[in-house]
Amino acid sequence: MDRFVYLDNSATTKVSERVFEAMVPYLTEHYGNPSSIYGIGREAHAAIDEAREKVAKAINAKSREIYFTGCGTESDNWAIKGAARHLAKKGKKHIITSVFEHHAVLHTCQSLEKEGFEVTYLTVDSEGYVSPSDVENAIREDTALVTIMYANNEIGTIQPIAEIGKICRDKKVLFHTDAVQAIGNVRIDVQAENIDMLSLSGHKIHAPKGVGALYVRQGVVIDNFMDGGAQENNKRGGTENLASIVGLGAAMEEAHNGLEEKAAKLTILRDKLIDNLLKIPHTRLNGGRENRLCTNVNISFEGIEGEGLLLLLDLNGIAGSSGSACTSGSLDPSHVLLAIGLEHGIAHGSLRLSLGRYNTEEDVDYALQVIPQVVERLRAMSPVWQEMKEQGLV
Amino acid sequence: MDRFVYLDNSATTKVSERVFEAMVPYLTEHYGNPSSIYGIGREAHAAIDEAREKVAKAINAKSREIYFTGCGTESDNWAIKGAARHLAKKGKKHIITSVFEHHAVLHTCQSLEKEGFEVTYLTVDSEGYVSPSDVENAIREDTALVTIMYANNEIGTIQPIAEIGKICRDKKVLFHTDAVQAIGNVRIDVQAENIDMLSLSGHKIHAPKGVGALYVRQGVVIDNFMDGGAQENNKRGGTENLASIVGLGAAMEEAHNGLEEKAAKLTILRDKLIDNLLKIPHTRLNGGRENRLCTNVNISFEGIEGEGLLLLLDLNGIAGSSGSACTSGSLDPSHVLLAIGLEHGIAHGSLRLSLGRYNTEEDVDYALQVIPQVVERLRAMSPVWQEMKEQGLV
Amino acid sequence: MMYSAKVMEHFASPHNVGEMPDANGVGEVGNQKCGDIMKMYIKVENNVIVDVKFLTFGCGAAIATSSMATDLIKGQPLSEALKLTNKAVVEALDGLPAVKLHCSVLAEQAIKAAIADYYRRQGIDPTPIVGEIEDCEACHCH
Ligand SMILES: Cc1ncc(COP(=O)(O)O)c(C=O)c1O
Ligand SMILES: Cc1ncc(COP(=O)(O)O)c(C=O)c1O
Ligand code: FES
Ligand code: FES
Q1: Contacts of A73 in chain B (CB under 8 A)
Q2: What is the CA(A390)–ligand 4 centre distance, in A?
Q3: Each residue of A204-233: pLDDT tens digit?
Q4: CA-to-CA distance for B126 and B339, rounded, in angstroms?
Q5: Cα(C105)–Cα(C99) distance, integer angstroms
Q6: Would you say residue C141 lies in a domain?
Q7: Which CATH number belongs to the domain containing residue C104 in this structure?
Q8: Is there a contact between A331 and C142 if contact means CB atoms under 8 Å apart?
């Protein structure tokens, strides 16, 4: 099996050639510490400034509103813990989020609960959207922060961020959004959408793993998360992840040049995948079709279990992911699929395919050739499917 | 000016060729997410496991005791905040550290003070050593943690870690050491030295900036710092910094093979620098000579100011620092030099030269040719020096 | 998480898959909530398992353990088949990741359940012979 079709771009992406080339000098000759005052130190500093400009520009922020971090998870931890702990001093100890956030947000909120914060977890509808009026109704006198993801990582639904931003701004409550999945796929404007803080991560947009950024609107004050040296304007200690930051800058620039064309192309591929996979009987699309990332396909196949599906796809050279618990070794299937109302059984049999810049129509055609066969094979050995058959359901 | 002599290896180091080559595949073709179950995901996972083995082996730890982080600063934050917050639940809210720790430790302790912890900052003697009996005397019923750096980043003094480790173990108090500067220069054995937690950082040992590790002895429980996914055995969320972790593994292996030979070679270079720089009149060595990193030279020149010195050295192609990289460019003189009793004036006129694997005797000879001239030039234009002259002191 | 070559072999080409219309013992364990359901069919003649088939809804490890377990009991007397432990199945597969050990527990239980069903059909109380078969609620595989 020589063919390799990567359809897991929401898990991580390949570093682009341009990004790699931008990084190499900083992994070789230009190794100065950005805090040092001699030549290679100043150069390193300038390279970081340039990357900061690029990140800022892509989301319509100012350069000094961008802070580099070690990953998307750190950005989420910092934004949420930093805001919560800061505002707790003013008696604000309530946080609003949704039940289907990424674990970087959910587990952060849970750890804040142990610190004495109260968290409201908004439910989402069966299509996978948070309702702005739910946000509005949940806001209290003591609400410190609303944190709602820009787009869901499993089912790709794009949330009504501008509306939520407007509500929060009107009610004078801080608004953070985890845009890790949206960045590069949706054009984001932090000013127009009234976003106070935004998390992003390099490895979802063809920069390396292990670098992220947090946008914090000028005037918003949050506690530091990483105490240390004077880097990042005294707000985030630690010698800067130089090469990866340069890579992130290059990746943001690349992602935002021609974003619309890329999205249009991917939407066509995505729809071809969805339409054809739905032809397999007893199959459902998870997440609404309207406001959906151009990259995301999430389908449940009744009667089969996701890990087996992934392994068989792997044997056929296709990389995808699943909301099955078995993949993660836990008993519970994806909290996202349960949140939109799926039963355990069917949640276990879900497949996420996520497209990226380098996918072609041939990739999609190949996947559409392999997947129905694989599903059929697994169903043939599934007691659940046999039972459905006996009951005349299929 | 073509010559370039890098004598700031305590600020950061050049990525070694072997490390770079080990990283490249993970920045190009092997881009899988280590949590994914298909081929390139499993490969990535295996690469991280291998790096973990290498890091563990270098300090005589077990592989499962090593957690990868985003930098040395994160390791320090996690160890100290994680232990403090965990033990606070058992009523232990006292921390012992020293006045001359790195800011990653000091600022972390200060932020814990705001959370209600009490911190004892031990003074150090004029040679730059913490006294084990001071540690012993400071331990109380409610002491959660002792954190003392392995070797000081500015003056290179190696602390009596094994003795402090023994005291802490006997008193059943957790012991953390920031070994960011010691790693690769001193052979460390976490078991023999009774170290419970140890921080290290890649970019001081020829791995890239923006990756670190924390050793946590098996059985020691601390709170998580970075909440998120199930990575790092559920203890540190965030997609792993794949390429840099692989680089860190390779760098640890490289640093620990032949450590003694490298140290012997560097000690000779270091002593040549120290002996010859001390021939310049009104000059002092900061930090004791006995237990001193083989890489560290820290000299104060009366009557001059460090930044001018650095800039002139830079013009001559020599990279050095005047205190830690993080503090250069700030107005306050180094807290480390003040801690060993230097006056503000002389603290300002200090120069740190730090050797690394790639330095040669020619580098040292060149530095010894340039520095005396530069010092003389600055003294000639210094009113302080002129006054000393008028008073017949020089 | 990584599967051994043996696990992948049994997963990719499982042995003894399918239904068995003329089985004289059928056992089913697990539930969809646990993410794993195994159905085991046996044909017993003269106290020997002459044929065995399985259906499994579950992960790669579940499918591989089903396949291996059926191989191990095929042609064996019932008394031997009852001695099969999940540990033996795991060993035969060159090990399983720790998080997957529960899937092998299920294979052992599915066999017991099928044998119990066989005895029941013969009018014999299986409990003294087979013992209790734990269901998922009681499972301590996690
Ligand atoms: C002693 C010491 N601790 C911690 C750090 C912080 O490490 P990093 O820059 O990787 O965050 C440094 C270096 O900057 C250091 O010298
Ligand atoms: C929505 C979302 N938030 C946060 C993260 C975490 O980012 P990182 O892996 O860089 O920590 C991810 C991806 O893993 C994600 O999809
Ligand atoms: S069936 Fe879910 S882990 Fe094996
Ligand atoms: S086998 Fe179902 S929970 Fe263990």
Answers
A1: 226-229, 237-239
A2: 25
A3: 999 999 999 999 999 999 999 999 999 999
A4: 8
A5: 12
A6: no
A7: 3.90.1010.10
A8: yes
